[in-house]
């Protein structure tokens, strides 16, 4: 069975698949706000809701790339705003180490981003998604 | 002490004739079970697994994954039944559940990631005199990645590679730091042959193309893989212990008296029969070696193999190892190991304090000990 990720990378004009791990309390609500405010952002973005950005294990990110994502983003609350007090700080610590590991493995880290988006930043959410999609589109498909 | 039983996930229903033929010579003497380090703290029973496999009784995933493949059973078996190889082949046939790997399976995912996503080997960042044209190459292994994913504050894995390079420099050699992928040992022993074949192909090509004559490695698992599993004609593979032993007259040891104990890694000891080189090197540094109560070919494993199942049983085995070492050299002593994995597992249990313990012994890698105790002439 072909996954959605695989079908979209095979089309002629390249449409990247982007996985966003968004935290339930800030970034997911931010995406919601972008939706109800009728802001436009690219449909390449697939959002995976997690309870906290601290839930995102480096293994999830690597697996997303392995299953065909062209770009991966982890989005959480701004530092200090975490619903669980310090989940996002732990996420940052863990993700920074993962980025270093990807450097060692020789992987383009441009395809990955960690962003802080709060529940009131619907506009910023749409803006970041547009920008990130454009960045991945310029980089081209991950596996040709 | 700790008895652990993990849930049974599947039953190995189809038993292959090929594997049965490996086991037919067994006459159920139970020597394997009596020495098995896993048996000490759980109900794991190699004899029973052989019996059940031969007579089509229940063999579970638990049976296949709990084995450390340390090879101690093979050492004592009167019929020389290769139980670790049997376990490896059955893992290859039936697969291993990804949930059973420690650290959220990150090391396996990274192995696949390395194969699928990148065309180059690992990039290392070491200080010291390096020479791309040198005929002697050094490969630190995947230790830099442990630093990133094992949350250990006081243990530096990067230091293993840095010490090895320092020691090689002290002997007057500028090594070529070879950018290879992971050696594939773990993929091989957990039966992931696709991943293993891919890295082997890549590494063989890079090693052949680089035109080196000697490859020095720090890790016992790399040494075993390159020597035994790969087919590298014309390239001499040396463990760092061999390299130092060969060139020890070029090093100036500070000769400070100290007492060490040494743990034989299963891949270097039982698999490759290298017992003397590491001991000779440690003795050359001026240290006197007090042996563990079980040493050389009867050394018990450090507790985890191929990142599979770091559970209560593994932790109990690790603590037992620290206890043995403490008995040999006392509370403030040092346990030398010649394998990055043993170094990782034993330091992890030392630092994590899970389960609670009060061992103060230090675990150091062989290259690190030599680097601390030597200077160039």
Mean pLDDT figure of chain B: 90
Biggest interface pair, counts:
A-B, 18 and 21 residues
* Helix content percent band of chain A: 40-55%
Question: How does CATH name the architecture of the largest domain in chain B?
Answer: Up-down Bundle
Number of domains of chain A: 1
| Separation of the first and last Cα atoms of chain B | 50 Å
| Alpha-carbon distance between the two ends of chain A | 20 Å
Give the biggest sheet of chain B.
4 strands, parallel
CATH class of the largest domain in chain B: Mainly Alpha
Q: Which word captures the global form of chain B?
A: globular
What oligomeric state do the depicted chains represent?
Answer: heterodimer
Which CATH architecture of chain A?
A: 3-Layer(aba) Sandwich
Q: What integer value in Å does the Rg of chain B equal? A: 20 Å
| Helix proportion of chain B | 40-55%
The chain-level structural class of chain B is alpha/beta
- How many helices of chain A in DSSP terms? 5
Tell me what portion of residues of chain B adopts beta-strand conformation: 5-15%
- Give helix and strand order of chain A, one letter per element, not per position: HEHEHEHEH
Strand order of the largest sheet of chain A: 2-1-3-4
Structural class of chain A: alpha/beta
The CATH topology name of chain A reads Rossmann fold
What order do the helices and strands come in, and which of them pair?
The complex is a heterodimer of chains A (144) and B (377).
Chain A: H1 4-9, E1 18-23, H2 27-36, E2 45-50, H3 58-66, E3 71-76, H4 87-105, E4 112-116, H5 122-139
Parallel strand pairs in A: 1-2, 1-3, 3-4
Helix pairs in contact in A: 2-5
Chain B: H1 17-23, H2 31-35, H3 46-54, H4 61-66, H5 72-76, H6 83-94, H7 106-117, E1 136-139, H8 143-149, H9 158-170, E2 176-177, H10 185-189, H11 193-210, E3 214-217, H12 220-229, E4 236-239, H13 240-246, E5 251-253, E6 258-263, H14 276-284, E7 287-289, H15 312-329, E8 334-337, H16 340-352, E9 362-365, H17 366-372, E10 374-376
Parallel strand pairs in B: 1-2, 1-3, 3-4, 6-7, 6-8, 8-9
Antiparallel strand pairs in B: 5-10
Helix pairs in contact in B: 9-17, 13-14, 15-16
């Amino acid at each position: 069975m072909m996954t959605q990720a695989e079908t979209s990378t095979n089309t002629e004009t390249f449409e990247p698949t982007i996985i966003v791990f968004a935290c339930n309390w800030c970034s997911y609500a931010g995406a919601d706000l972008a939706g109800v405010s009728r802001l436009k952002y690219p449909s390449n973005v697939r959002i995976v809701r997690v309870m906290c950005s601290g839930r995102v294990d480096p293994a999830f990110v690597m697996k997303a790339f392995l299953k065909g994502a062209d770009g991966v983003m982890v989005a959480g609350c701004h530092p200090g705003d975490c619903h669980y007090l310090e989940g996002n700080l732990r996420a940052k610590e863990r993700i920074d180490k993962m980025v270093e590991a990807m450097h060692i493995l020789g992987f383009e880290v441009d395809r990955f981003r960690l962003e802080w988006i709060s529940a009131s930043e619907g506009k910023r959410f749409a803006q970041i998604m547009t920008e990130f999609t454009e960045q991945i589109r310029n980089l081209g498909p991950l596996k040709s | 002490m700790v008895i652990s039983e993990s849930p049974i996930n599947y039953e190995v229903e189809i038993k292959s004739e090929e594997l049965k033929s490996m086991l037919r010579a067994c006459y159920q003497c139970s020597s394997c079970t009596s020495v098995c380090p896993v048996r000490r703290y759980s109900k794991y029973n190699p004899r029973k697994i052989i019996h059940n496999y031969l007579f089509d009784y229940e063999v579970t995933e638990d049976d296949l994954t709990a084995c450390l493949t340390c090879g101690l059973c093979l050492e004592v078996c009167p019929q020389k039944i290769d139980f670790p190889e049997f376990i490896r082949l059955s893992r290859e046939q039936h697969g291993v559940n990804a949930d059973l790997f420690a650290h959220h399976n990150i090391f396996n995912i990274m192995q696949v990631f390395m194969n699928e996503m990148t065309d180059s080997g690992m990039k290392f960042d070491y200080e010291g005199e390096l020479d791309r044209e040198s005929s002697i190459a050094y490969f630190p292994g995947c230790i830099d990645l442990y630093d990133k994913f094992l949350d250990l504050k006081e243990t530096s894995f990067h230091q293993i590679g840095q010490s090895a390079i320092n020691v090689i420099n002290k002997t007057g050699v500028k090594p070529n730091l070879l950018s290879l992928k992971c050696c594939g040992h773990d993929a091989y022993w957990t039966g992931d042959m696709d991943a293993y074949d891919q890295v082997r192909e890549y590494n063989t090509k890079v090693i052949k193309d680089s035109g080196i004559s000697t490859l020095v490695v720090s890790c016992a698992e790399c040494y075993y893989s390159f020597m035994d599993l790969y087919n590298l004609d014309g390239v001499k593979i040396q463990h760092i212990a061999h390299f130092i032993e060969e060139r020890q007259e070029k090093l100036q040891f500070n000769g400070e008296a100290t007492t060490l104990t040494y743990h034989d890694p299963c891949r270097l000891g039982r698999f490759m029969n290298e017992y003397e080189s590491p001991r000779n090197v440690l003795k050359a540094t001026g240290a006197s070696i007090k042996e563990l109560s079980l040493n050389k070919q009867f050394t018990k494993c450090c507790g985890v193999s191929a990142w599979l199942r770091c559970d209560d049983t593994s932790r109990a085995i690790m603590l037992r190892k620290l206890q043995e070492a403490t008995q040999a050299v006392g509370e403030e002593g040092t346990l030398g190991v010649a394998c990055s994995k043993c170094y990782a597992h034993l330091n992890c249990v030392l630092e994590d304090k899970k389960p609670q313990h009060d061992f103060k012994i230090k675990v150091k890698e062989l290259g690190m000990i030599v680097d601390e105790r030597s200077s160039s002439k």
